[in-house]
User: Which sequence fits this backbone?
């Protein structure tokens, strides 16, 4: 079974990559770390651990539930808070990833397992993958997408991009780079070539 780590910068197009990959290769097993994080943030135990580290200000004062916007602003404006968040979430996400990988390998339903790990290089997230795949754009494109797509102001967009390694450094560290500046069809063509290369190796 091929095992790859998929990464990129924020707003470079990892989600689009995953969508296209599953269209052209329906049997691929794709583990999404962001979805795992979103699910974990709904768990009471995780929320309690976050409050113990970051304080009750991350909770909505009316509902008592986790305020995602407050949490996001907090961790992207304060490096210590971000490290506390990652220290709680990353081990849990990695465990889920390993369990999914094992299940895929033993079930035999797919010959390819890919984990979408946004902070692959930053966190040293290792699950025994053989190669890293990077979806890349320019920094300017990242910022523009965060402003236009997500509606973030310049300060938050800059903070989110700055919280990750520069794309140029990730390009140097990745095994395979998919450039996602143009139309979606260009990215699709790159993915098709990658799949064809794998097929030629078997």
Assistant:
């Amino acid at each position: 079974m091929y095992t790859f780590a998929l990464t990129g910068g924020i707003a470079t197009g990892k989600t689009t990559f995953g969508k296209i990959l599953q269209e052209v290769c329906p049997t691929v097993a794709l583990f999404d770390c962001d979805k795992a994080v979103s699910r974990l943030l709904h768990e009471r135990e995780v929320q309690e651990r976050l409050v113990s580290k970051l304080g009750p200000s991350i909770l909505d004062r009316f509902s008592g539930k986790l305020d995602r916007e407050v949490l996001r602003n907090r961790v992207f404006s304060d490096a210590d808070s971000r490290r506390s968040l990652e220290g709680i979430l990353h081990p849990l996400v990695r465990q889920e990833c390993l369990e999914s990988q094992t299940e895929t390998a033993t079930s035999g339903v797919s010959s390819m397992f890919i984990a979408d790990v946004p902070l692959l290089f930053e966190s040293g997230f290792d699950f025994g993958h053989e190669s890293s795949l990077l979806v890349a754009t320019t920094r300017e494109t990242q910022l523009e997408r965060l402003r236009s797509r997500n509606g973030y102001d310049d300060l938050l967009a800059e903070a989110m991009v700055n919280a990750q390694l520069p794309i140029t450094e990730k390009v140097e560290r990745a095994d395979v780079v998919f450039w996602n500046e143009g139309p979606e069809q260009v990215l699709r063509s790159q993915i098709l070539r990658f799949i064809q290369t794998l097929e030629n190796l078997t």
